[in-house]
Amino acid sequence: MLLPRRRGGNERRKGVTAVEGLVQRVSHRSSRTALPLSHSCLRYCLYMYDAESARDETSLRQRLKRETTAVHQHLEAQLGLLDPSLDVHRYRRVLETFYGFYVPVETNVTRLAAAEPPLGFPLRARTELIERDLLALGRSPAELAALPLCRDRPEMSCLEDLAGCLYVLEGACLGGQVLTPLLHRRLGLAKDSGAAFFAGDEESTLPRWTVIVAWLDGLPRTGASTAHIVSAAKATFDAFARWAAVARGGSPWSI
Q: Is 208 exposed, middle or buried (0-12, 13-18, 19+ CB in 10 A)?
């Protein structure tokens, strides 16, 4: 995979500092001494930093990122995957929360995508990866079938709803690339032992995300409503966070 054109020394050093801080906060939130970044992890973060910095600040991608930050952070807090006290039991409960949301939402996404013009990229059935992880962590097929499913789902009736939802679902795969080594280090989990969902497309994650971002940024030129897409993305984050709060025994909320 080729990296974007290298920047000048001072500018690139500033970028390295920024991404190092990001990974250290994510991977070692509970530690006072951050571990050195691996070459592959640093390469990944530099790619993301350069790709995002080169993108026009007025693009749909940038507006989505800016306007969904608050609800995205609320969702992360509800899931608790970065909590230092995360253990295998809690991790399995988080996966069950993902399962309860992804099963109905992916069904709706598939249905709507079939009624719209071709997207230009294949949809991914990530529910199957969650099933594989839960089975690896001790759940039986009968227990999977009995898991509750989210009924308070985001609206899915037009292209803008589809785009906003896919921004959330596909964007989660980027976070998975940071979480996968964390799960291995803390819980001893790998792709074949409970972390298949977060491992996702692995090295193909960034190329796929690039295609999806290009598709998103092209939608306003086809007449799609930017405001509606942003609203749909926020509604997807919001619905997932409400579901996660209920699954953890808390009270549903909305912002």
A: middle
Q: Residue 50 corresponds to which tokens in the numbers above? A: 């350069």
Question: Long-range contacts made by residues 183-190, C-beta under 8 angstroms, separation at least 24?
Answer: 183/91, 186/86, 187/86, 187/87, 187/88, 187/91, 189/88, 189/91
- Please answer whether residues 208 and 57 qualify as being in contact, where contact means their C-beta atoms are separated by less than 8 angstroms: no
DSSP annotation of 221 reads: G
pLDDT in tens, 76-85: 887 888 888 8
Write out pLDDT tens, residues 105-154.
999 999 999 998 889 899 988 999 999 999 999 999 999 999 999 999 99
- Comparing CA positions, the residue from 200, 206, 227, 237 lying closest to residue 105 is 237
End-to-end CA distance of the chain: 39
Q: Mind listing the domains of the chain with CATH numbers?
A: 1-54 (no CATH), 59-247 (1.20.910.10)
Q: Which two tokens stand for residue 155?
A: 């609206």
